[in-house]
Design a protein that fits this description.
Oligomer: single chain
Order of helices and strands: HHHHHHHHH
Number of strands: 0
Structural class: mainly alpha
Distance between the termini: 51 Å
Length: 224
């Protein structure tokens, strides 16, 4: 249990520290960028180092031996439909589109090719890395401390935490709260899927479908 607690303490605060440093404490500075990038590198290398040096296990590609892709597709589509309905009914009136476009322009995402490239990266690469970190490593380590429900809640909470700080720069408090609830539910669902299937890939499929939906809405807001 002590090793699991140590692993969680060394990993889970990293993305929040990165977001706070890069976007709040030292914005638009080399120090802020260095801490933000460093937190990303730490987030993705630490689990591998721990696996090899502490757990002394082999690296696995997390094969989906128990299936789960049907559940991944269904949950991804269901969440996406809910997001679309929520946006069309109330979301469009709650999001300050001009402010969002201004913020996207500041970080260079107002160009369609760049936006598409970013969407592909977040969907095809970043989502895989998030499943590997939060669903494989964090859920498994949290299982060494809590029961399955506690592990799901722990991993989902810290996955949601850094998203809250990031969203706060672009949206109103109400939108941030709704977004945080949605992210937590999604993270809890994907954590449950990892425990059920012991593979990151069913959860990734669901995650990727949801990301595509969100980037589709973002593209509609920015480019019309």
């Amino acid at each position: 249990m002590k090793k699991s607690i140590l692993a969680l303490l060394l990993l889970m605060p990293a993305p929040t520290i990165g977001v706070l440093a890069g976007m709040y404490w030292f914005p638009n500075s080399k120090l802020g960028s260095a801490i933000f990038i460093g937190s990303k590198i730490w987030l993705f290398l630490f689990p591998l180092v721990w696996l090899k040096l502490v757990d002394q296990k082999k690296i696995s590609l997390s094969p989906a031996r128990k299936g789960g892709f049907v559940m991944g597709a269904i949950t991804g589509l269901a969440i996406s439909i809910f997001i679309l309905v929520l946006y069309k009914t109330v979301g469009s009136s709650l999001i300050d589109k001009e402010f969002l476009v201004e913020k996207m322009t500041e970080i260079g995402l107002n160009s369609l090719p760049v936006y598409i490239g970013g969407a592909l990266y977040w969907t095809l690469v970043n989502s895989v890395l998030e499943e590997y970190v939060w669903r494989w490593f964090c859920v498994e380590k949290a299982e060494g401390v809590f029961n399955s429900v506690g592990a799901i809640i722990c991993a989902a909470f810290f996955f949601t935490l850094h998203h809250i700080f990031a969203m706060n720069l672009y949206f109103s408090n109400f939108v941030v709260i709704v977004g945080a609830i949605g992210i937590f539910i999604g993270a809890a669902l994907w954590s449950f899927m990892y425990i059920k299937y012991r593979s990151v890939w069913p959860g990734y499929l669901s995650h990727a479908i949801v990301d595509l939906c969100i980037f589709g809405i973002g593209g509609y807001i920015i480019f019309g």
